[in-house]
Amino acid sequence: MDKQKLKPKLAEASLIKEVEFLRSEIEKHNYAYYVLDEPTIPDIEFDRLFQRLLALEATYPHLQTPDSPSHRVGAAPSTAFLSEAHQVPMLSLDNVFTEEAFFQFDHRIKQMIDSSEEIEYNCEPKFDGVAVSIIYEHGVLVRALTRGDGYTGENITQNIKTIKSIPLKLKKDFPDYLEIRGEVYFPLSGFEKLNQQALSTNDKLFANPRNAAAGSLRQLDSKITAKRPLAFYAYSAIYSEKNLLPDTHNENILRLKEWGIRTCPETAVVKNKNEVIHYCQQLLSKRHSLPYEIDGVVIKVNNIALQESLGFVARAPRWAVAFKFPAQEEITTLESVDFQVGRTGTLTPVARLKPVRVAGVVVSNATLHNMDEIERKGIEIGDTVIIRRAGDVIPEVVKPILEKRPLGTQKIILPTHCPVCGAKVVRLEGESAAKCEGGLSCAAQRIEAIKHFVSRKAMNIEGLGAKIIEQLVNAKLIENVAQLYTLSKVELLQLERMGDKLASNILEAIEKSKKTTFNKFIYALGIREVGEATAHQLSESYSDLNSLMQADIESLESLQDIGPVSALHIYSFFREPSNQNIIHQLIENGVHWPSKLEKAKNTDLSGKTYVITGTLSLPRDEIKAALLARGAKVASSVSKNTSGLIAGDKPGSKLTQAQGLGVPIIDENELKLILSKTE
After folding, report:
1. Three-state secondary-structure class, residue 447
2. Are 304 and 253 in contact (CB under 8 A)?
3. What range(s) does the BRCT domain occupy (predicted)?
4. Tens digit of pLDDT for each residue in 390-416?
5. CA end-to-end span of the chain
6. CA neighbours closer than 13 Å in the CB half-sphere of residue 275
7. What is the pLDDT of residue 591?
8. 315 and 366 in contact (C-beta within 8 Å)?
9. Which of 13, 447, 504, 522 minimizes the number of CB atoms within 10 Å of its CB?
10. Do residues 183 and 232 lie in contact, with contact meaning Cβ atoms separated by under 8 Å?
């Protein structure tokens, strides 16, 4: 063989061998330092190895691999995070706050499994960080997601790769597919340094370590994330091969460590409920000496087979619970109270406090919740008060210290009129919440009122999503729902990412929505306590809009299923001049519906009751609305009085019940025929 050709091959082989050696050494030392907490070489020696690897990969890019430790320095900035679905939902945990509540949890488990034997639990700190899911395929980190809403999270893979306590490649004997779940947190020492740096450069301070962790993980530029000293502890694993699952949760945790995944040394197995309480007390006693923030203990049934038999409720496992520690408290002075109006019209009293540091954060505002709480606690302006802050929850005023009450304190008085729009404020007897009756016209409620108005069950204006509505309001193109019907294409085209076709479609949908039904119009107004059923009842009970708007409380209360609370809300809504004005504008802008006389022509289904089940091509609420408009009733369960079961694909048990009772089964084609005959 030609020696000149052989030299490059030998050089290439030598380079590959050196790169592989460097990667192996770096990962070995990372494992010793971040997982075992037992560094084996000085930092300067580690830096030499790392810098040599960076230099080789920069000079020979073709030698780079996805699992190289060099990826921890961060990638080029991204423009957005993509959302991805979790293969297994990341559920929340139910909370307990007292020993008694945990004992009740333990008792419920014993009842469910019909056993009096003590339950073995796995206990671990509840980190005040960010829950993440990390996917390994064939031992290589391929994807990482935030918890998100529990079903869909954001892809943060590049940022997760920068965290040195998370291996890019697992050690030996791992399953082909492995999902690791755990908590990314900001060590307290690193958090203090980060805020000190921010102070020196006049940058924004992070409120707490959890916010710092969340903000770091959501950096579009992963090079910024790489500079933050984030850390990670795993608390569970999901396998592709079920037969690989160990018998206990704790064995699962120990196996993670063998693969090079960091787990919390404070994790422990306890034999019964009393040992759980002892563990919680011990951890609470050293809470402030831990190098990270925690807000409680996560308690899990240790036996995995028992976990599977206990199963889940809608949002949480039955076999786990979080024992929350008492929130941290401080004393300060209540200087004044403002009333903020929320998006649904609720007035929330907010305490303006003499600034005080609580749980590492300077607090100057705190919630007073509502007037009931103020009255119950006896809080007055000028009081010395105890405030509490738990995690990133809004601080609250716990109570006044009466022995420190000075002369001249002032009672906190609920405004009679909305501080935003001037409409009347209503607080019903027996209700804690006070609400602005401005409804359609209140600026604080504007966006939510419009979102509700255009929703599918209301005016059904397709294309007007939340973002477009927010843009319209923020650009001051609309101030209320009536102005939707005066929008022009020129105005719509001013919005970001609004094309000609989309603008035309929205205008067409707005025009189409002008023709509606009386009950949908009533529902669209967003009157408190008026859902679809109540809106339908009102549309059937009043001949036209004017008679409904003029109805007194007594006549409203006389209607079936409308009580005194709903009656007062309906009455107050229609007595508010700003609401009256917007309703009149809607009518003037062309919103209309069939009169009682027109509706009477289509009532040959009157007296009939239908039940809907299975999957149909038409939305179920549209079928229901069509049946109701033609005089029929729609029930949720089958009985001998059911006129017909409208059955789509996968009808379930209702089909069997209907067949047993001899109830006629109606398919979608027959349904369309029935509805067409009544038009």
Report:
1. helix
2. no
3. 600-679
4. 555 678 888 888 888 999 999 999 999
5. 91
6. 12
7. 95
8. no
9. 13
10. yes
Closest CA to 245 of 161, 331, 175: 175
124 is in an annotated binding site: yes
Query: What fold, for 602-677?
Result: Rossmann fold (3.40.50)
171 noted as active-site residue: no
- To the question of whether residue 147 is assigned a binding role by annotation, the answer is yes
- Token pair, residue 595, equals 């009169």
Q: Which two tokens stand for residue 566?
A: 């709903």
* pLDDT score, position 120: 97
| Per-residue model confidence as pLDDT tens digits over 332-372 | 999 999 999 987 789 999 999 999 888 667 889 998 988 98
3-state secondary structure of 7: helix
The encoded tokens of residue 47 equal: 């830096």
Place of tokens 């009081």: 383
Q: Is 608 annotated as a binding residue?
A: no
Lowest model confidence (mean pLDDT) among 121-125, 305-309, 528-532: 528-532
Residue 392 assigned as binding residue: no
Q: How many CA atoms does the CB half-sphere of 606 hold within 13 Å?
A: 7
How far is Cα 122 from Cα 120, in angstroms, rounded to an integer?
Answer: 7
Map out the domains of the chain as residue ranges.
3-64, 95-324, 328-404, 443-596, 602-677
> Tell me, which fold does domain 3-64 have in CATH?
Helix Hairpins (1.10.287)
Q: Say how far apart CA 24 and CA 413 lie, in whole Å.
A: 68
Residues in the chain: 679
Q: What angle do CA 218, 133, 292 make, to 5 degrees?
A: 70
Residue 280 marked as a ligand binder = no
CATH of range 95-324; options 3.30.420.40, 3.50.50.60, 3.30.470.30, 3.40.50.150: 3.30.470.30
45 annotated ligand binder: yes
> Closest Cα partner for 123 from 328, 295, 269?
269
Measuring CA to CA, which residue among 433, 430, 356, 351 is closest to residue 398? 351
Residue for token pair 């404020």:
425
From 126, 169, 273, 435, the catalytic residue: 126
Query: What integer pLDDT is reported at residue 523 of this predicted model?
Result: 94
In this structure, how many other beta carbons lie within 10 angstroms of the beta carbon of residue 381? Answer: 17
At residue 436, the 3 state secondary structure works out as strand
20 marked as binding residue:
no
| Yes or no: domain 443-596 corresponds to CATH 1.10.150.20 | yes
Q: Is 44 annotated as a binding residue?
A: yes
**Nearest to 441, CA basis, from 345, 546, 566, 571:** 345
C-beta of residue 646 within 8 angstroms of C-beta of residue 671: yes
Tell me the fold of 328-404. OB fold (Dihydrolipoamide Acetyltransferase, E2P) (2.40.50)
For the ranges 30-34, 170-174, 252-256, 606-610, the lowest mean pLDDT is seen at 30-34
**Number of CB atoms found within 10 A of residue 160's CB:** 25
Half-sphere exposure of 172 (CA within 13 A, CB side): 2
